[in-house]
Amino acid sequence: MTHYSKALFHLGMLTLLLVGMPLVGAKLAGKPLTLYLGFPPLAPKVVLLDFSWPIFLVYGLVEILLYAALLYLLWPKKRLEVRLSRRFPGWGLIMLAYLGFAWYLAWQRPTWAGSWLNHTFTLLWLGYIGVVNAFCVWRGGWSLLTHRLRYFLGLFPLSALFWWYFEYLNRFVGNWHYVGVESLTPWQYFIQATLPFSTVLPAVISTMALLSMFPLGREQAFPPLVSGSPRMWAWLVLFFAGLGLVGVGRWPQWFFPLLWCAPLLLFVSLQVLLGEKTYFAPLAEGRWEIVALPALAALVCGFFWEMWNYWSVPKWVYTVPFVSCCKIFEMPLLGYAGYLPFGLECAVIAHWWARLLNRRDDSAARSFTGQACLDQPGPE
To answer: Cys-Cys with 329: which of 44, 219, 302, 310 at CB 3.0–4.6 Å?
Structure first.
């Protein structure tokens, strides 16, 4: 099996599991499958379970431990220095001005902007991505935009496909839905949704690149993670992640957290079973910063996603069981923890894409995604 045919087989199996297993659960629950296969998707009819203090406290305790571990992993190796020998690039100033203009369009919605107002979220994130890459050049002398252009541009269509998987899984749990899109035709909905979806991976990976240019992360923070039987573990993870997706379709109000974890577990376990080197291979050397950096990058992006969404139209709103309180913007406080595994998913997909482009050079693939602390790469 060639490298590219293996990649297609990998994506095909992942798609089959992500699409099929929740449908199995829905079928076991006696629900009509047509509810989940129409397009554009209707806002799921979710009976929101009442707020529960016991569940809120349990989730909260787990999340406090996760954030504490993240802080421990990211504690600076040395005192952070802000001295910069490079000038901020001129095109970065243009991107800053553009971002401010897009922000004005999104929140003020001037009538003269016409149909552009339907795409302000895309405009905002293109600005964010440009600004972050400019800061990468300022801080480290390079960026994905200026030095890895082919890889960087490929992230956009890959990102659109990547996020549509989550949109599909959300049909079962209904944790978010969009307002302001009710009058769109299927084609209009597809275009208006796919454009902002395409900015997700470039934003997270660019943020990860910038964060990796600071001395963040303890060396040997935790012991190396070594597994004596990786294929056995991969089969077990594949089985339980697939079973969890069945639960997403059967009992969505209880299994909804797996929406953020199951795709990651399935993707990595399939990689192991296909004999591919995974993003997490450096954990065997105690390289725990590869977990912390993408988690923090997604959390940073998550703050801006939620903030810019709050006064935008169209926008999304949340209906999360048991814990829908203490909102920061539209997101319940405890919901922000979902960005931690999501960051890992972004890094895993980005690393897979990098290895696909550099199939004979894993060190080059790692330099794309920050897995090797973003060694200084040369231009493509």
So the answer is: 310
Take residue 198 and report the two structure tokens written for it: 């395409």
CB 122 within 8 A of CB 105: no
Q: Is 322 contained in some domain? A: yes
**Cis bond upstream, residue 32 (ω within 30):** no
The residue assigned the tokens 């209880």 is 254
Average pLDDT, rounded, for the chain = 88
Query: Distance between CA atoms of 353 and 192, rounded to whole angstroms?
Result: 25
3-state DSSP helix/strand/coil % of the chain, to nearest 5: 65, 5, 30
Q: Is residue 9 part of a domain?
A: no
- The distance of Cα 310 from the centroid of its chain, to the nearest Å, equals 19
Question: What's the pLDDT tens digit per position in 38-64?
Answer: 888 766 666 667 788 888 999 999 999
Domain containing residue 116: 39-43+65-77+85-225+280-369
* pLDDT for 39: 87
For residue 36, give every residue at least 6 positions away whose Cβ sits within 8 Å of its Cβ, in sequence order, or none: 22, 23, 26, 168, 171, 172
Question: Domain for residue 3, yes or no?
Answer: no
User: What does pTM read for this prediction?
Assistant: 0.92
> What is the share, in percent, of the chain residues with pLDDT greater than 90?
64
Task: Report the distance separating Cα 278 and Cα 267, nearest Å.
Answer: 10
SS3 of residue 326 by DSSP:
coil
Q: CA 247, CA 241: separation in Å to the nearest integer?
A: 10
Domain-located, residue 209: yes
Encode pLDDT of 88-102 as tens digits.
999 999 999 999 999
Closest of 128, 53, 110, 105 to residue 305, by C-alpha: 128
Q: Is the pLDDT of residue 279 over 70?
A: yes
Q: Which of 96, 119, 92, 120 is nearest to 107 (CA)?
A: 120
Distances (CA, A) of 350 to 220, 257, 278, 315: 24, 23, 11, 27
| Band of pLDDT at residue 364, cut at 50, 70 and 90 | very low
E strand or H helix at 232: helix 230-250
Number of domains comprising the chain: 1
